[in-house]
Amino acid sequence: MTRIYIEDTIVAPATAQGRAGIGVVRVSGPLCQTIATAIAGDLPAPRLAIYRSFYDKERRLIDKGLLLYFKTPHSFTGEDVLEFHLHGSPVLLDLMVQAILDQGARLARPGEFSERAFFNQKIDLTQAEAIADLIAAGSATAARSALKSLEGEFSKKINALVEKVIHLRMYVEAAIDFPDEEIDFIADKQVSDKLAIIAKDLNAIFQQAEKGVILQEGVTIALAGRPNAGKSSLLNYLSGKDSAIVTPIPGTTRDILQEYIQIDGVPLHIIDTAGLRDSDDVVEQEGIRRALLALEKAQHILWLIDGAEESIEDIRVYLKTIPLEKRYHDRITFIYNKIDLREQSAKQYQQHGYTILCVSLKTGEGLTLLHQHLRSLLNLNDHEANFIARRRHLAALTTANTYLLKAEEALQKRLAGELLAEDLKAMQNSLNEITGEFTSDDLLGKIFSEFCIGK
Question: Fewer CB within 10 A of the end CB, N or C, for the chain?
Answer without folding.
Answer: N
